Amino acid sequence: MTSAKMNARHLIIDLIMGSDGAPITIRQLLLAANLFNFSENSIRVAVTRLSSDGMIESAGRGKYQFTQQWQAWATDMLQRKQGIQATKPWNHDYLAVFTGALGRVDRTALKRRERALRQHGFRELQTGLFIRPDNLAESFDETFKRLILNGLEPDANIFRVSHLDTASSQKVASLWHGETLNHTYASISQKIQAWLAQAHECDVEQAARESLLLGREAIPLLTADPLLPLPFIDEAARHQFVQDVQQLDQVGQKLWQQFYDTAQV
Q1: 65 - beta bridge partners?
Q2: Which residues have C-beta within 8 Å of that of residue 119, sequence separation ≥ 6?
C-alpha cells in the first residue's frame, strides 16, 4: 500500500495519539520500531529530541506522554477523530484576529502565532488580519483561549464581523481551497474503506503497520481541517471522512493491542 512518509519521530507521536494520548512505554516503542525497520538508537534519539522540544515528557519509569501544551492539541485531534460536534450552523458572521500590533521581529513567536491561526482555520484577509467563518461550536472566549494556548500572543485582538465590503467578500471565497479539501476527504475515505475490506486477510503485524501508515494520511487533514461550513466545503464528504477515520481508529487500536499482547508487553 502507498503511505505517507514515516520516521522515528512520527512513529512516537502517532503511537501516543493512537493510545488516545495515554502514556506509552519505551518497550512498546521499540517493538513498533521493528515493524518499520527503525533502530533502537533512532527511537531513543527521537524520544530525547521530542522531550527537548517540549512535546513529550516522562510519565514514570520508561513511559512517555504528551506535555500539557501538546495534550491540548491531542485532545482537540481526538475530539475531531471521535466525531464530537465541533461546529454550529453558520449565520454568515466571521471571527477575525488582528495581529498588526504584535510585530514580526521575533521569528519564533511569529511561527507559533501563524501556526495557531492556521490550525484553527484562520486565513489572512489583509496584512495582519486573519479571518474564518464563525461556525465553531465553542464560545468566542473559548476560541480565544484555545488560540492563546496554541501559540497566539494574548495581546492579539479578536472580534466578530457581521458585514464585509464587496471586495473583501469576493476575496474571502478564495482564502480556503474547498475543492481540494473535498477531494482529499473523498480520497482518504476510499482508501480507508478499501483497506478495511481486506485487513482481516493480513497477519497482525502487517495489519497494525498498515493501519498506522494509513492513519498518517488522515491525521494531517484532521490537524489542519479548518472546519468550514457550506458553501465552502461539502459537509457530507467531511462527515463520511470522519466516520471512516473513526472506524480505522477502532480497528487499528485493536490490532496494536493484539500486537503488544502477542509480544507480551
Answers
A1: 57
A2: 150, 223, 224
Residue corresponding to grid cell 466525531: 83
Closest among 94, 29, 64, 42 to 263, alpha carbons compared: 29
The one-letter code for the residue type at 218 is: A
H/E stretch holding 264 = none
Q: Do 133 and 229 form a contact (C-beta atoms < 8 A)?
A: yes
Residues 184, 179: Cα–Cα separation, whole Å:
9
57/55 Cα distance (integer angstroms): 7
Please provide residue 19's backbone torsions phi and psi, each rounded to the nearest 5 degrees.
-95, 20
| Interval 125-147: pLDDT, tens | 999 999 999 999 999 999 999 89
Distance CA 52, CA 189 (A): 36
Measured between alpha carbons, how far is 224 from 236 in angstroms, rounded to an integer? 18
